[in-house]
Amino acid sequence: MRKTDLKSLYFNIYMTYTNSHITLEEIGMKHDVSKQRIWQIVRFCKLGGGDYYKGLKLYNEVHNRYKKDFENANPKTINALMRDWMKLKDIRLIKTK
């Protein structure tokens, strides 16, 4: 699938999730994608204002900045910082153990 096709698919998934009461699992079944992948698409689209690739780019920029700013931090700490940042962006997260 070309990037433009994926971009359209991701936007459609995001809009379906945003504007209906259909579950992540149902969306995944419709598109033959796992519930976890649907959730990832929705999160990045939300970060990018509906654009998956803008959201992914922003996420990666912040992640890389944290790794640079906190170079001695372990991956668990970086992950906690990213989760806090996403909460500030009003991105709903799945609870960790």
Instruction: Indicate how many domains the architecture comprises.
Output: 1
The gyration radius over C-alpha positions equals 15 Å
Return residue spans where pLDDT drops below 50 for at least 5 consecutive residues: none
Q: Span between N and C termini?
A: 35 Å
Biggest sheet architecture: none
What helical percentage do the residues reach? over 70%
Number of helices: 5
Number of strands: 0
Q: Please tell me what the overall shape is.
A: globular
SS-derived structural category: mainly alpha
List the helices and strands and how they pair.
Elements (H helix, E strand, L loop, with lengths): L2 H17 L4 H8 L3 H13 L4 H18 L5 H14 L9
Helix pairs in contact: 1-3, 2-3, 3-4
Compact overview of the structure:
By secondary structure, the protein is mainly alpha-helical. It contains five helices and no strands.
Give structural notes:
This protein has 97 residues and is mainly alpha-helical. The protein has one domain. The protein is built from 5 helices and no strands. The protein has helices spanning 3-19, 24-31, 35-47, 52-69, 75-88. α1 (3-19) crosses α3 (35-47) and α3 (35-47) packs across α4. The protein is globular and about 45 Å long. The N and C termini lie far apart (35 Å).
